[in-house]
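All the exercises in this workshop are built on plain-text protein records. A record pairs a protein's sequence with a compact description of its fold. Backbone structure tokens are a discrete shorthand for how the chain folds in space. Once this layout is familiar, the rest of the handout is easier to follow. As an example, a complete record with its sequence and its structure tokens follows.
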Amino acid sequence: MDPDGEAGPEIREAPSIAGDAIEGAALTASFGKYSAGAALEGVWQRCADGTCETAASAEDGGDYVLGAKDVGYRMRLKVTATDEEGVTQAVSRSTDVVAAAGAVVNKAPPVLGEAFVFRALEVTAGEWLSDAALTRTYQWQRCVGGDCEDIAGATDTSYEPEIADLGARLKVVETVSAEGESFSASSEETNEVTCAEPIASEPVSAASASDAASGVNWTFTGSGFPATSKAIGPAKRSALFVSHSFGYSLPESEVQGVEVRITRRASNAGAIRDQRIALYAPAARIKEPSNEYWTGGSVTSVYGGPTDTWGQAISTSVVNSAQLRVALGVENAGEEAADAIIENAEVVVYYAAVTSTVFNATTVSAAGAGSDWVNAAAAVTENSVSATFSLPASTPAASKALTFGGFGATLANGAVPSGFALEVRQAATPGLLVGSSVKAGTATETKNQLPQALGYVSYGGPGAKWGLTNEQVTSAAFSAQLQVMSPGFPLPGSVQVDAVRLRVYFGGEEAEEQRAATVLETTTNEVAWSSVSNALTEDNAVATTTLLTDQRSSGSLVLSGFTATVPDGAAISGITLSVKRSATAADQLQDSALFLRQGAKVVGLNGASADFWPIARTAATYGGPGDRWSAPLSVEDVNSGELGAELTVTHASTMGAAAPEVDSVTMTVHYCTD
């Protein structure tokens, strides 16, 4: 029923159309059936996108010959029935889209069976709409990534996939000729050609192992911008671009936010993107890198902002020194080598000028669960003697809490503090990452990196109130607790404390300053592998690195000289790598890259996994019987002794640390024969 129709004749049979929707063909109208006495009028309609227009008047039982104007539209019959009660309108179902004259495919030619090397495939004829006699020809095509090319000589209805087809998909183009014109239709692509029943070679180990740095250094114009990391290869990284000495000379302030602005471009689009962006103030704090590719035009990327202190309290003294550093590493996620160019690096510091007063702790006691401090009483006297907490190797440890009191804080009448800081003079063994936590009021702040030499580390700051009132801070009972914890690192170490003080801040006016870096450096973004030959044999002796932190990556562990024994004439269907691996801490390390190598050259695609490396040493499997790593490997390649693998690991957390451990790497070659 047409929704615009009024009460009228009853529709007892809807209108219908007979015929094929092909240019030059005739469609026949049937108006349908209605209650007695209805007068009928009909029109042919041409429809597209829900809108119809009148093409011609229609007669019941009459024909409409489809013309060029109708091609690309659907046709519909609309009938108006009228009697004494009113008007009723009815429409038929729409036809298929009208095709141009000639032969029109109704069903593409199907390929029968799965695509396996050395096993024949068959194609059956497609179904075409045509009144003329058809002649048919066929052409098999090999398709990679959607791009298809003819296979020379493959023009029969059957085709036996060859070694050259491995990893590709196949399809058939059927061409029909009718009345001097030709029309073509393609089958759907097959599955990727592989072996029907792959045979696995014996797993083989590499003959040699080495460490290879792959980070491309930055070079500078004179000592300044632009900075360029040139010809970074696919799946490779730059070294770290480090900028510092921004020339700040701020008064004592509450730093409310830091914004980093990097103006950059790439030699070609779709390749270079951020791998690591960090602010050192002085501890490293990492931002989630952007997945946006650098373009060929200059773009300024912004990290942080007016209220973003990058997860740490930043002191004025750090801002005014070379300790405030920006570090940026990039990676090439494209398929061709590309240059990364940095044109400028600036920092904007948002702050409020403050004044402060310092009150020293005069009492200390150690209590609670945990291990004892040595000479705990020395923690409140700034001299050559310190309280010391020792951390054993490979064993989690926690200290007893040191409780500091006797600060004697006073406030001038009417003074309103803007915040408080507990400043602890402390140090830790170089390279040791610990959890050093200070609790005051209702808040706790933890530092994971401590200076190597004794120096004041600030917990809190000009805007940190710790859930404290003025009365609590000035009370004789006010205290703060410090505790040190370690998850258990491979090497032993210690933490020293020899003074604690309370700094009370009073706020001032807000301001901001923007400065450009005056010193540019390039430094490694990678940590070298050691004991690399341990990865050649499964014996619980491991190749490893020192601790990876702050999203740094290892160098490339290169394993060379895998030699398989595969018969001549075989088809290589896949490669499996088995890497027996572990990490010294959970949820810290991931693969950055895992490639096959042919001689000194990386081949194929990155096979890295996103899984975190576990603490328990287990074998991770990469590739498989049907995975060729997009590398066109032949029998000669896998038997030559030139086949290798290259593994890079990255620290994938914003905190913590871990070292990778590789016990062994084996390779299995999968193949089939005719």
